[in-house]
Design a protein that fits this description.
By secondary structure, this protein is α+β, with helices and mostly antiparallel strands. Helix content is 24%, strand content 38%.
Length: 96
């Protein structure tokens, strides 16, 4: 199966980046979520914190909001919110 590939430009002058695989999947989810952001609960993925770390290294501005949750395993979880204005120049493939 072909990996998802996104060619993204951080507007207005943050550079252009080729994002591949799960990192591209995470970026696509962050873009689609807008200001409400993404959590590993709403968008299950095995390594959200690592995807976000890698995207930040490329220059994407992503906020981590710590939220409480209840239930039998009460605690906290992260919500990731993309603050960069991103222009998708090209998108191909799909997430595996």
């Amino acid at each position: 199966m072909t990996k998802l590939r996104i060619l993204a430009k951080i507007m207005p002058d943050g550079g252009t980046h080729q994002v591949i695989g799960r990192d591209a999947w995470a970026l696509r989810n962050l873009i689609d979520a807008g200001k409400r952001g993404c959590t590993p609960i709403d968008h299950p993925g095995p390594r959200w914190s690592h995807y976000v770390w890698k995207l930040r290294g490329m220059g994407f501005v992503i906020e981590t909001v710590h939220e409480d949750h209840g239930g039998p395993f009460a605690g906290t979880h992260a919500r990731y919110v993309l603050h960069s204005d991103v222009l998708i120049l090209q998108e191909a493939g799909r997430a595996a």
